[in-house]
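Lab notebook page, bench 4
Experiment: in silico fold of construct C2
Operator: M.H.
Input chain length: 194 residues
Purpose: comparison with the prior construct
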Amino acid sequence: MTDVSSIAVFCGSRIGALPAYAEAARDLGRGMVVRGVDLVFGGGRVGIMGELADTILEGGGNVTGVIPHFLDKLEVSHETVTELIRVDDMHIRKATMFSRADAFVILPGGLGTLEEFFEVVTWKQLQLHQKPIVVLNVAGCWSRLAELTSDIVTAGFAHEKITNLFIMAETIDEIFQHISDAPSLEHRSLDERL
């Protein structure tokens, strides 16, 4: 983990239906604190994103939140984080999170989490970055995401190598192992990979 000092985590602003979702967020937070890895996240105090940030702060870790003004006005921002960056819109939020992260982890979440995941994966496909992307498949919540990716390949809309753009993990330890072991993507022409 010497090359990774910060991880952007995309996750839900809701707590979810299963206690395992919040517990996974807390476990990830504890794992980041032990390894000295800073958190970059969406800046909210609610849902599993709040659970993650609180765990890291309680452990003495650093947390950077990035929140658009319109969400800040709804009083959902996490005011006690190490650094809270207020931005104009969702696009700037994602770009800011991207620029401050060495890797990405996707926890359970909703449409916003999926949108954030697909954006960083697409940027990787377009060779705009080589940062590791790890999806934590808590209680099978993302199993169909892997199936969807395979279906896109089978339908002929993407090169088979897109399955290498991200890694599915089943445990917190696997997340950090995958990030440590993440190879650089081999250079391929965009025609082969799109």
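Observations: The beta strands are 6-10, 38-41, 63-68, 83-87, 103-106, 133-136, 167-169. The helical segments are 19-35, 47-58, 69-73, 90-100, 111-125, 143-154, 172-181, 190-193.
Next step: discuss at group meeting.
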